[in-house]
Specification:
The protein is an all-beta fold. The protein has no helices and 17 strands.
């Protein structure tokens, strides 16, 4: 990636609403990522290629695997998130679609 501001690296073909999003490094944002207005990414964080952060989504000290889509106004703090599951810092794993989980995420390709 290319360092666009101190501690923030982005890959090619990204679409980031720089006016409406807050990004604080260290953060690596992969290629073809879309970050909408109202989002925040607080590092250390890694956003894999092809991810989509919908309006108001927050990523705090987390890793998003490739092609992960976060729902509007969702907060993912200190987690590893993939299109199919998420793991918090205590090792608790929740799979996408589990109605007991208030967080909404999925596959950005579908």
């Amino acid at each position: 990636g290319k360092e666009v501001k101190p501690g923030v690296w982005i890959g090619p073909n990204t679409s980031i609403d720089w006016e409406g999003a807050e990004i604080t490094g260290p953060v690596y944002i992969g290629s073809s990522v879309k970050i909408e207005a109202g989002c925040s990414v607080i590092g250390p964080a890694w956003i894999g290629h092809g991810c989509h952060l919908r309006a108001g989504a927050n990523v705090i000290r987390s890793v998003l695997f490739e092609y992960t889509r976060l729902g509007e106004n969702m907060e993912f703090a200190e987690m590893i998130v993939s299109p199919c599951y998420r793991v918090d810092r205590t090792g608790n794993t929740v799979y996408v679609g589990d109605d007991r989980c208030s967080l909404r995420w999925g596959d950005a390709r579908g």
